[in-house]
Amino acid sequence: MEFYFLIVSLLVVSTLIFVIISKNKQQILFIKSLKCFNINEPAISVTDYSKIYHAQTNKSKEVQKEFPEGCGGFCIKLLLKQLPPQLIHKSMKYFEEFHHKNLLEVYAYQTTPPILIEEYCHRLSLNEFVQTNHPNLHDQVFYYDIALDILNGLKYLHSNGVVHGNISPSNVLVTNDYQMKLSDPSFSCFSRMNQFLSKSSHFQSHIPEIEYCSPEARNTFTTPSSDVFSFGMVMAFVVLRRPLQTIVGRSIEIKKKQHLLVILDSQEIELIIKECTNYESYRRPPVSLLIQHITNLKINECQV
Predict the structure, then answer these.
(1) Domain boundary among 84, 119, 154
(2) Which of 48, 187, 192, 259 is most buried, by CB atoms within 10 Å?
């Protein structure tokens, strides 16, 4: 009798776990055309790597069932570099597992041409937001909020075995309530896929924005520390309103001199940027330590 009760209990627990996992895993649809979307011209953003369009779904019930329309619609992102379909399929399978408030949701995709259907962020990218000279950018606490949102997104990815590999102001999206969301993890930087990628002739076809790329990433070797470097470069851009001159390919001595020229109003943020953009990857602070340190800085600033 006790054995029977134990078996029933295990079945109930297993069922509950399956239900919880299923609820947290949102299927990303593979679509063959964009006919279910009304795409607004012109593109709202154009880079060397992608074109982004704002779109809404058409009014058919079947489409609305698959794509529940939010108040802001969707982003249609056309990647300008062709990637192997197997790589895109595998990447999307990993995307299905990842849900975090600081990661942009991906709803659907197609492979030829490579297109992502993503969550729409009202204020677009951090790159564009900074150019507006928004009043929030004069608030020290807001800088800490930007940093913590980016770092929390990275912490989530790293804890799941994924290096983002493509952190830049263009790939940090700003929501209507000023929350930061990471988009566009480089397809070439999923650490679980290294064996597949090492055999791919397309490996070099998707290169992150060079101004924010760590020195080691130039050699296609990325670790969580590479994301820390890019985070530091993004924070420098937010504070300086321009990209910090890239140190990739320069000697360590030149880099040290360059750092001495970077003088910011906030010594705390200046120190964080310098530590994160250290040429030697092992000298950069881990994400968890940065979150703890910046959280304490924010608390102290709010108490002033």
Answers:
(1) 119
(2) 187
The reply to whether 196 and 264 lie within a common domain is yes
> Residue 108 in contact with residue 34, Cβ under 8 Å?
no
CA 277 – CA 271 distance, rounded (Å): 10
CATH number at residue 96: 3.30.200.20
Are 130 and 221 in a shared domain?
yes
Report the chain's terminal Cα–Cα distance, integer Å.
65
pLDDT tens digits, residue range 134-191? 888 888 899 999 999 999 999 999 998 888 888 999 889 999 899 999 987 766 544 3
Region of 161 on the Ramachandran plot (φ > 0 left; ψ -120 to 50 alpha; else beta): left
- Residue 300 to residue 304: CA distance in whole angstroms: 7
- Compute the CA torsion angle 130, 131, 133, 139 (nearest 10 deg): 10
**Is pLDDT above 70 for 210?**
yes
Task: Give the three-class secondary structure for 46.
Answer: strand
Going along 169-287, which residue ranges are E strands? 172-174, 180-182
CA dist., res. 2 & res. 10, Å (int): 12
- Give the three-class secondary structure for 75: strand
Residue type, 277: T
Residue 58 CB contacts under 8 Å (≥ 6 apart), including other chains: 36, 37, 38
The pair of structure tokens assigned to 33 is 């055309």
| Residue 165 in domain | yes
37-46 and 74-79 as β-strands: parallel, antiparallel, unpaired? unpaired
SS3 278: coil
Q: Is the dihedral of CA 137, 157, 71, 30 positive or negative?
A: positive
Cis peptide before 135 (omega within 30 of 0): no
